[in-house]
C-alpha cells in the first residue's frame, strides 16, 4: 500500500499482489486466496496504529507552524538599523519641528543617533510602560549626552507605525499654551518633540506579549530618546523669524542646520551596560520549543520504523 504524509512518504514492501485470476490451477487457487485474505487482515490491524502516528505528525507540524506565526509578530517590526525606519522617525520629527506655531527662531534640525537608538531598544525590551531609570545617570543612557530625553508609546501591533506614534505625541499641542508655558493635560511628549536644542534622536520598537503598566497584550512598544534632553524650566523654543537666532547655521525648511551637529557616529563601540541579555518568550520559542518539536518528530519516525521495519522511507 502507499501512504502520503506531510513530512514523509512511506511504501510497504509487503503490499499484497492482486487476487489470482482463473489462469491459476484450481489446486493452487484456494490456498492462495487464503494467504491473501490473511495478509489483508494484518493490513487492517495495522491501519489504526499508522493513523495514530500520522495524527501525531500532523500535530507536530501544526505546532511548528504556530511557532512560526508567533515569531513572525516580532520579525515584522523594524530594527534600529532599518534605513526606512530611521528616515521615517527623523523626517516626522523634523516636519513637526519646522511647523510649530508660533514660529521658532532657533529650532535645530534633528538627525539620527545610533547610541540613543541602542538605549531605546534596550529599554523597550524590558516591556515596561515607564521611563528609563538610567536617563539621568552619566554614561548609562548615552556616552556624551546627560541627561537624555525620552518619549514612550505603546499600542496594538497592527496599528503601529513610527509616524502614528510620533503624531500622537505632537497632538498634545492642543493642551499646551506657549504664552503661559503650561499644560492643561499631559503635553510633555509634544514639548520634547519640539525642544529647540534637542538635535539628536534615536528610536526603537519592540514586540511585547505584555507591557507592565499597560492594559492589553501583543503590543508594539515604541521609544524615542533625545539628546540633549528637553523639558526643563523654560519654553521649548524661542519665537521669531525662522533661523534668525541660529548664528552661523544654515537655514533649511525653517530649521537650523550645522555640519557638526549632523555628524552621525555609527560604530562608537558604546552599549548601555545595564542591557543584560535576557531570554524572553520569543527567545524561548526559538531555543527550546522548536528543537523539542524536531526531537519529537524524529522519535515518532523512529517508533514508526521500529514498529514496522518492512516500511521504507522515500523522498
TrEMBL record:
Pfam families: CAP (PF00188). Its main location: membrane. Gene3D superfamilies: CAP. InterPro entries: Allrgn_V5/Tpx1_CS, CAP_dom, CAP_sf, CRISP-related, V5_allergen-like. Residues 84-234 form the SCP domain. Keywords: Membrane, Signal. GO terms for cellular component: extracellular region; membrane. It is found in: Membrane. Belongs to the CRISP family. PANTHER family: CYSTEINE-RICH SECRETORY PROTEIN-RELATED. This is Glioma pathogenesis-related protein 1-like.
